[in-house]
Design brief:
Helix content: 40-55%
Strand content: 5-15%
CATH superfamily of one domain: Alpha/Beta hydrolase fold, catalytic domain
Number of strands: 17
Radius of gyration: 25 Å
Structural class: alpha/beta
CATH architecture of one domain: 3-Layer(aba) Sandwich
Strand order of the largest sheet: 15-14-13-12-7-6-4-5-2-1-17
Shape: globular
Largest sheet: 11 strands, mixed
CATH class of one domain: Alpha Beta
CATH topology of one domain: Rossmann fold
Length: 559
């Protein structure tokens, strides 16, 4: 089901924001690197054997008898020079032979399974960094541009490099930030701020239909980026799609904390969610909301719902949708999971406790190295070697608009990742209330993406086994962000549904049926089925008790 991705598509599927646990550092990679070097020293005979194999392959490359060839889907070697020009062909073959030999050596030295995956990651990190395409003289397309532009592309590339050194922390820019302005050409669906607390602003959006679904949709975004992943440019905006389909939409916009808010923890965020739900119910006159949460926002919302249920106030939420969200983190399948040991988790906790926050910008820089070909070297080639301006891509702009996590909330998320308490009812407490999802009896809708490497689809599926009510699972043929931003329209997207939720994801997939297009319309029918009928659209936003405080997208999103 995997398909070749455009470079920007690959980059947007590697976003930081929706990952539920962050705090990975270069120290973790350094430890894995030391492990690899230690094995090289302890087993010199194996190293010598594979060095000899590489030497023999290089001899064949030199005399033109080697059969080594790049993967046809590897964009780095798409230029015909790598197959038609002897020098570039041998250059590519030499690098490919080195990379394959290093990978084979890792498999031969006898690492434990998890250590083997870490070692492979480190080896790939090093070998990818020295790929010939990352350098001007080894990149035929860059040399061609330099000749055709009389060196102008090289000059532009140098300017881009200097600008990134000064203004982008030394990392290649992924997006032209000058092309977007929040509230103007992005996050511009009409609405009002109808409630504000120290932690959040609540946005209510203007209906566009004469009648609306009586039950309001209440969306909780992740805390590590801005809320407008739900309100991108108009053609990609889930918020705009919902209001155009006759739904009342309320969205939480989290405040960007500083070190002064270091003590804000999960309990504080749960309290803030309940306050915002109460404001939504007061404005709409409804007894319950249709809750929605994605990834870390889903973890927070699920915690809040279990907490409210434990207090006998769970009826404030009538249904729950969890998008690309993992509640059962046992056997984590993501790239991040390779390095999430007890030691690295504690080190991450200490770093954020020392600084008071988990800095989103710093974390994003580290996170980019988890997929360097898509998030670093791709832009080194385009920005510096080709001298191109970074693309004007709304989702990548949003991804660069990072926020911070308070140290206490980061610590709470690390505990959830480490202990997976949702799988053990009562193992976690919020303000002395045991958290037990089996007591949540409302309908639950859960989504995943077939190519999602951040929250793998089968890990998302495991949440269907945690709730006490009926669960519906939908699998989209997309990655992490594209599973969330999945508007109807011309595309090759498909989704899978199965009315049953057997214990294993593989059983579910075997019995699932395929449907063409976006899953959004299917979800809206599910919302209507579990809704509370329709009513005339409100003439004004807010209410006497929760009067509008200013136009959407509000003020917190600008911090």
């Amino acid at each position: 089901m995997a398909t070749e991705q455009h470079p920007e598509d690959a980059a947007l599927e590697s976003t930081l924001a929706l990952n539920p646990v962050v705090g990975f550092s270069f120290e973790d990679v350094a430890k894995a690197s030391a492990m690899v070097l230690r094995q090289a020293v302890l087993q010199p005979a194996i190293g010598a054997e594979y060095a000899n194999r590489l030497f023999q392959e290089n001899v064949r490359i030199l005399f033109g008898t080697s059969t080594v060839a790049p993967n046809p889907r590897d964009r780095r070697f798409a230029d015909e020079a790598f197959t038609e020009q002897p020098l570039f062909k041998r250059l590519a073959q030499g690098w490919l032979a080195m990379q394959q030999t290093a990978t084979d050596w890792v498999d031969a030295v006898g690492f434990k399974p998890l250590d083997q995956q870490r070692a492979r990651f480190v080896v790939d990190l090093v070998t990818d960094a020295v790929a010939p395409t990352n350098f001007l003289l080894g990149n035929p397309s860059a040399l061609k541009r330099a000749r055709e532009s009389n060196g102008e592309s090289v000059v532009k590339g140098l300017r881009n490099f200097i600008d990134d050194m000064i203004n982008n922390g030394g990392m290649p820019s992924q997006v032209d930030k000058t092309a977007f302005k929040v509230g103007e050409n992005i996050a511009n669906t009409p609405g009002e701020v109808v409630f504000r607390s120290p932690l959040l602003e609540l946005l209510q959006y203007q209906p566009t239909t004469e009648t609306v679904e009586a039950r309001p949709i209440f969306i909780v975004p992740p805390q590590i980026n801005k809320f407008y992943v739900y309100d991108m440019s108009p053609e990609k905006s889930l918020v705009r799609y919902l209001v155009d389909q006759g739904f009342q939409v309320f969205v939480v916009s989290w405040r960007n904390p500083t070190a002064e808010q270091r003590d804000w923890g999960l309990a504080d965020y749960v309290d803030a969610i309940e306050e915002a739900i109460d404001a939504t119910l007061e404005i709409t006159g409804q007894p319950g909301v249709a809750g929605v949460g994605a990834c870390a926002g889903g973890i927070t919302f699920a915690s809040a719902l279990a907490y409210l249920t434990g207090l006998g106030r769970g009826d404030k939420v009538a249904s729950l949708t969890l998008m690309v969200n993992v509640l059962d983190s046992r056997n984590d399948d993501s790239v991040m999971g390779l390095f999430m040991t007890d030691q690295t988790l504690e080190a991450a906790r200490k770093r954020s406790a020392r600084e008071g926050i988990l800095d989103g910008e710093k974390t994003a820089r580290v996170f980019n190295w988890m997929r360097p070909n898509d998030l670093i070297w791709n832009y080194v080639v385009s920005n510096y070697l080709h001298g191109e301006t970074p693309p004007a891509f709304d989702i990548l702009y949003w991804n660069s608009d990072t926020t911070c996590l308070p140290a206490q909330l980061h610590s709470d998320f690390l505990n959830i990742f480490k202990d997976s308490p949702f799988t053990n009812p009562g193992a976690m407490h919020i303000r002395d209330v045991p958290i037990d999802l089996t007591q949540v009896q409302i309908p639950v809708f859960i989504t995943g993406g077939t190519t999602d490497h951040i929250t793998p689809w089968h890990a998302c599926y495991r949440s269907t086994q945690l709730f006490g009510g009926d669960c519906t699972y939908v699998l989209s043929t997309a990655g992490h962000i594209q599973s969330l931003i999945n508007p109807p329209g011309p595309s090759k997207r498909r989704y899978y549904v199965n009315p049953e939720t057997p214990p294993s994801a593989e059983e579910w997939r075997t019995g699932a049926t395929e449907h063409e297009g976006s899953w959004w319309p299917y979800w809206l029918e599910w919302q209507r089925t579990h809704g509370a009928g329709t009513k005339p659209a409100p003439e004004k936003l807010g209410s006497a008790a929760n009067a509008p405080l200013g136009a959407a997208p509000g003020t917190y999103v600008l911090e």
